[in-house]
Amino acid sequence: MTVPDQGEMEKTVVGGLSALLGPGAVVTEPHELARYEQGWRYGRGAALAAVRPSSTEEVSRVLAFAAARGIRVVPQGANTGLVGASTPDATGSMLVLSLERLSRLLEIDPVDRTVVAGGGVLLSQLDAALAEQGLLFPIDLGADPTVGGMVATNAAGTRVLRYGDVRQNLLGVEVVLADGTVLDLMAALRKNNTGLDAKQLFVGTSGVFGVVTRAVLRVVPRPAQRATALVGAASGATVLQLLSHLERGLGDVLTAFEVVSADALGPVFRYQPRLRNPFGAALPPYTVLVELSTTLPSERISLDDLLESTLGALLEGEAGEGITDIFPGKPSDLWDVRHHVSESHRHEGEVLGFDISVPRSSMAVFVDAARALVAAEYPFIRVCDFGHWGDGGVHLNLVWKKDEAVRETPELKAELQPRIYDLAVTSFRGSFSAEHGVGPHNQAFYDRYTPALVQEVCRTLKARLDPQGLLGTTRLG
Ligand SMILES: Cc1cc2nc3c(=O)[nH]c(=O)nc-3n(C[C@H](O)[C@H](O)[C@H](O)COP(=O)(O)OP(=O)(O)OC[C@H]3O[C@@H](n4cnc5c(N)ncnc54)[C@H](O)[C@@H]3O)c2cc1C
Q: Which residue's CA lies nearest to atom 44 of ligand 1?
């Protein structure tokens, strides 16, 4: 008997998948495949093929087909994840299961205040449809991910302070397990205390327990008005003082509190000349984007007036010490600045990103400690820190020019990751991944910081839900 070679095996697999899903659903041409093989920032591999089912039933058939042949599969949404978990490994033997065609289902129920969405629906699609009905899915971030990807990474973003992350806004999911079994957990209940909340197994677990094909999301009334301002602060301590002051004075009208250091903001204005820089050449050490929002119309209460009077009163009191500037501005203009921060760093050279959280009260001290650590031994690296201080989240982007570096990027990454993560997790009781989830980029640190018992529980779950270990490139136990 002759054993089929690798090329023949691939042809058989691709032929089988094409027969299952029809033409156009299986991508194998290298120039078309490339975008499924390369992550946004980390993760580059080689896929046997990308498969694009367009219904739950097709996802189930693909997974059953792969399971029967022992083929590993990585689920992929919009490929905007930042831990290298959405792309295949380098073996060329994995399938990319793209959910991009599961984007048609989008049913809004204004009475339940829910939306049922396909796993491949984009955040922008969701937002446009909800806007028509005066509703909002309150996850807001600088990329355009899919519903399934947001569930698998428990995405958060800039309005967690007010509305929480995906976990807190998810009522139900439908998932397909590695063997093709469909698990329906789609009850749209806000209250359901009947033991284990099984849908949470699929939230923030990088798609390794199952593929999210549908979700029921809780939505909120869309604010009728927003008011925003950029506030300059002389230090991290001033930023925390401002946060306490605004929370005390404004309660839940305060929707976002985003902080960008001068080093992180500089590149935005350098590479996005169309964005207005109200500060001029001398950026304050920290810039805070403050957003207020309410569902009440401006005839009832003017948020612009409220913001102006609150910030004005601040300047007159002790809490205003260290506030250097206040620039009210149009929300869309100010958010445009904030959403270009991460992207602009890529123009500056090499970027090593850290997505850290620490208790809010420790944020200023933690960032200073991280800066001191880097300055002492890596003077060619700039710490460009920015993020969601209102939630205790900070992105530390370490940025350097390749030709000024003393060592190659992979070596620097290997040296710096344990030092910064140890500082955050061990010294400050923080998290090594505040909102981007777990993937090959930070796998070693998941292994290092996750209690052995938790890893053991994950191993047990994986053995039941995906006994051959076929789903994903992340290992939770
Ligand atoms: C410029 C920029 C800004 C960002 N800002 C933020 C931010 O502020 N807050 C934040 O939380 N994130 C942020 N992100 C990260 C990113 O947008 C999220 O991780 C996003 O939720 C990933 O969704 P996706 O559809 O792109 O998934 P992908 O990147 O395709 O996949 C991410 C992970 O989910 C798995 N997966 C994807 N789809 C499914 C599915 N249907 N079922 C099961 N598993 C699946 C993949 O296997 C992978 O493990 C940002 C990203 C960029 C590029």
A: 207
CATH of the domain at 260: 3.30.70.2190
In a domain, 147, yes or no: yes
How far is 346 from 333, CA to CA, in rounded Å?
A: 21
**Domain of 216: which CATH number?**
3.30.465.10
pTM over 0.85: yes
Q: What is the pLDDT at residue 76?
A: 98
At 22-76, the pLDDT tens digits run 978 999 999 999 999 999 988 999 999 999 999 999 999 999 999 999 999 999 9
Which atom in ligand 1 lies closest to the alpha carbon of residue 165?
A: 11
Cα of 259 to ligand 1 centre, how many Å?
22
The pLDDT value recorded for residue 3 is: 56
Tell me which residue of 339, 86, 292, 127 sits closest to 217, measured CA to CA: 127
Which residue puts its alpha carbon closest to atom 50 of ligand 1?
143
Domain of residue 317 covers 225-341
| Beta strand 225-233 pairing with 323-329 | antiparallel
371: CATH: 3.30.70.2740
For 328, the enclosing helix (H) or strand (E) is: strand 323-329
Inside any domain, residue 293 = yes
Domain count within the chain: 4
Distance CA 338, CA 91 (A): 38
Residue 466 lies in a domain: no
Residues in the ligand 1 pocket, defined by CB under 6 Å: 40, 74-82, 85-86, 99, 119, 141-143, 145-146, 148-150, 152-153, 155-157, 206-207, 211-212, 342-343, 435-436, 439, 472
> Which of 66, 98, 130 lies at the terminal end of a domain, its last residue?
98
Contact 136, 219 (CB under 8 A): yes
Band of residue 308 on the pLDDT scale cut at 50, 70, 90 = very high
Q: 406 pLDDT exceeds 60?
A: yes
Q: Residue 297 has what pLDDT?
A: 94
